[in-house]
Amino acid sequence: MPPPAWRDHDTFAARLEAWARAEPQRIALIDDDVPITVSSLRDDATRLAGGLASLGVKPGQRVALWLPNGADWVVSFLACARIGALVLAVNTRFRARELADVLGRGGADWLIYWPDFKDIRFDAILDDVPLHILQRLRGVFMAGTQALPAASRQLSGSAAIASGGNGPHEAALSDVQREGRLAGIPAYGLRALMQHGPAAPAAAPNAPAICFTTSGTTSLPKFVVHDQRTLLRHGDAVARRFGHDATACILGTAPFCGVFGFAALAGGLAPGVPVVCQAVFEARRAADAVSRHRVTHAYLNNEALLRMLDAAPDHDYASVRLFGFATFAPALDTLPARAAVHGIALTGLYGSSELIALVAAQPLDDAARRFLPGGRLIYPEARVRVRDPGTGRVLPPGESGEIEIRSPSQMLGYLDDTHSSAQALTDDGYFRTGDLGYAVNDRHFVFQARLGDTLRLSGFLVNPAEIEAFLASLPGIHACQVVGADRDGKTVAFAFVLLEPDTEPDPQGWRDACRQAMAGFKVPAGFHVLQSFPTVESANSVKIQKGRLRELANELLQADRPAP
């Protein structure tokens, strides 16, 4: 049976409008157990687009979206897509240093955020962002607050803040004075803007829609841009490959700010399948949502899935058709057996910021590879090959090298970085993944490891050079190396430090500084002072033995564990 005609549209605004006309009472989202129809979603998105446009948000401008999963995130994204503004997706676990990087290098014109989500003082985090970066913003929009002035009390300095109530029957925007560090920058209540008249859609299918951050190959993340047509096409491909039909329901608990969570969201929105939004992953709540909303599909990392099954071993998973997982914690090898106890179909996944997540999945009928990372590409026209990174020779199936993929889901490029965009692709259009693996055939592959030293921490790709650079900037630290280590089946960061002369170790001070500057999952689980790093001489240079450091980190963490 062919898909309905409304799915032919290749902008979010046009597809949402056509979907709302065809199935106005269809459930699009379930946010905190509250169902939201597609007509309500369309109305909120078009009105918010009108409100944003009335305040000066224009096509091509950049809107940093710093919100947890939920209706406000989805509505804000759809509103920006309608206008043609580019969303800079910001992780809610980011702190001042990381936020400043996204706002600054990402060239943000506007910021949407939730001042006090889950008792996290995002205002206080903003307060630590350098003033010259904040002053570049044209305005900020606040979600989730009932009283805007109260939400701005933690800011210091002087600002004129325009306030709007967030309730559906509250008054229109009015100017008030409030002390704030957002000097001269107006701030508005997001909900009040949803009372505005709708804006006409202005975006073309090839308009940049969202920008994801990735660790890249230096200490600074790259910003990966995807356009509207590509995102919708990928959502359609995900739906076809994984069976998102009219009776499906998707669990949306992976953060929408990353490609893993966004691919699941797009796999619901594009074909018109409801998505159950969860602002933060809590294992028991996720299991409850599966039972309560008859969830059919979920896409999580293996650690999260195992935690969910452990938290609710007696739950009803009868509605589940497929749980796809990415292997972010390789030491957890009990997941397949645990899923089998519940009769849950399970398969390994693959993706990247540049190709979008869920671009490949292992076939369910391939018993030998079904639970391995990698898979068969979901696009019939997509291709994979493996190249020897030393000789440049394309390798036959079964031989390990760098994985290269050509797919319709490929990025537009890296934001404001044409050189890196060109370097990321081969002359014939394959993306250089930087991953080690082997091909099964020209559409099927197995991922083995990162070619470099990039870490997966709490499901997020992190370049250790970012943590190393920060630690090396602290007083008394001469040099630093950060590696991944295993703690209770979870990959954590571990830092090895060389001190300046006459300096005493200060692990607690280093840890506190990291917690202030970066997301909690990046804070090293341990620090160890060395006299020198272990090295080995190659033909061209002296290289630090990261493998030896990883072994030592695991030994040190094991020694710190209390006796059973």
TrEMBL record:
Domain AMP-dependent synthetase/ligase: 16-415
Protein family according to the UniProt entry: Belongs to the ATP-dependent AMP-binding enzyme family.
Protein name, as recorded: Acyl-CoA synthetase
Keyword Hydrolase attributed: no
Origin: domain of life: Bacteria
Residue ranges annotated for the AMP-binding enzyme C-terminal domain, each copy included: 466-538
A GO term, aspect molecular function: medium-chain fatty acid-CoA ligase activity
Biological-process GO terms, alphabetical: fatty acid metabolic process
Annotated source species: Bordetella flabilis
